[in-house]
Amino acid sequence: MSDTRAQAAYHDSEAALRLVDKELDQLRETPAAAQRLIMVSLADLPQILERANSQIREVLTHLRETRQAIQSTTLDKIQTTHDKLKEVTSATEDAATNIMDACDRANQIVDELDAVDAAEVPDRQRATDLRATLRDELFMMMGALQFQDITSQQLTHASSMLIDMESRLADISKLFDSSISPDRPLASMRGAPDEKTYDPNATIRNAEQRQHLVDEIFTTVKAGAA
Amino acid sequence: MKFLVVDDSATMRRIVINSLQRIGYNDTVEAGDGQEALAKFDASIGFVITDWNMPNMTGTEFTKVLRARADGRQIPVLMVTARSVKEDILTAMEAGVNNYIVKPFTPQVLKEKIDALLPAAAA
Question: What number is the ipTM of this complex?
Answer without folding.
Answer: 0.88
